[in-house]
Amino acid sequence: MKAFMDKDFLLSTPTARKLYHEYAETMPILDYHCHIDPREIYEDRKFENITQVWLEADHYKWRQMRSNGVEEKYITGDATDREKFQKWAETLEMAIGNPLYHWSHLELKKYFGYEGYLSGETAEEVWNLCNEKLQKENRTVRDLIRMSNVTLICTTDDPVDTLEWHKKLAEDESFDVKVLPAWRPDKAMNLEKEGYLDYLKKLEEVSGTAIQSFADLMEAMKKRMDYFASVGCSVSDHGLEYVMYAPASAEEVEAIFAKRLSGEVLTNEEIKKFKTAFMTAVGREYHRRNWVMQLHYGVKRDNNGKLFGQLGPDAGVDCINNFAPSSEMADYLNGLAKNDELPKTILYSLNPTDNASIGSIIGCFQDSSAVAKIQQGSAWWFNDHKTGMTEQMISLANLGLLGNFIGMLTDSRSFLSYTRHEYFRRILCELIGGWVENGEYPEDDKTLEKIIKGISYNNAVRYFGFPL
Known about the structure:
By secondary structure, the chain is an alpha/beta fold. The chain is built from 20 helices and 9 strands. It has a 4-stranded parallel beta sheet with strand order 4-5-8-9, with helices on one face. Strands 1-2-3 form a 3-stranded parallel beta sheet. Strand 2, helix 9 and strand 3 form a beta-alpha-beta unit. Helix 17 packs parallel to helix 18. It is globular. The mean pLDDT is 97.
């Protein structure tokens, strides 16, 4: 029997172990998409206890605690941090086969030196150990980032954001990890949402543009893109229900926007046409600016109305949406490509059954302007476990060039989540090592090193072109 999560965790063959320990293990991390708060990095937050660093805003853990019958007071309520930690420890016991079990223990080992396993019985021991290290040793936000060997972080930022903390970090010579904004304009696109007109007022103020037409809206967006670019932004990100395509004339789009400005209710078809126009317009701008466009889709959000009403978004009540017509995504990409206006694009679906459709679509739009210009993003959210990661990489290998894959992203609100890259790299090396052991790929050390280091880090450096 193998020891629990030893140095060869998930590595079952000699080749897998060699690929990981010699090539992947020490590679830096390029965190090109996450949801951490740049203010906490600038202020170098020091956590009082492990609950603050582990359970605050972590809807992955919240979901599982609810599945274990834990009262909401111990999850997002007014229970003490020690009580919340206890409930999480008791929940983790039941999480056999869940990636949270692996992630939690990788984090305990890396950041706190804990070699045992967390349970209801060991909770007091782990609580005391972690809190002692958080208080007495270097475990502030910046220390955790340095310990993780991170070179660059892209946060997720709304067009109306001042980017105050990014500018302060850029001026802070004491911290050598780059922290850049990433453009997330969902609120500017989602005109069907309550509060949209109030949002436009904010956009008017920060852009200095009166928004009375769709053309005005796009002018305001361009001005904000200019501002974001001045602070180092070169990456966009969109959270979509699905990638839709319903082209309409400029006159029709203006009429739809005017209808919304007047407070009228739009039809689903009008909303679809507006969003198509919006995504087409910003896609063209990304191409002109050489920005990377990320499209996250396939999610149905805020399903539990009661919890959403109490906690708002990101409360752990989202699910996979199985409606995502690949034909419309292909048409959207084609709409940009036909006039040579398609930017570098990364496609992520929350539905794993979309792997093959993504893999086939990206091959339609590759060209010589960039290596693997159109990427299938890493297994995302409900798929970032051993099965999901393996299936995504096998599908990409079957239909494209796995060797050009830009690899893992953190997509987290936690400063301890960088061990997800270790988890991913172990799974990567196990997969490729198995192919080599099975005679499906030669034992060519030079090429294997290039592939493993590329997927771990180097491909992303090349693809994004960040000033490292």
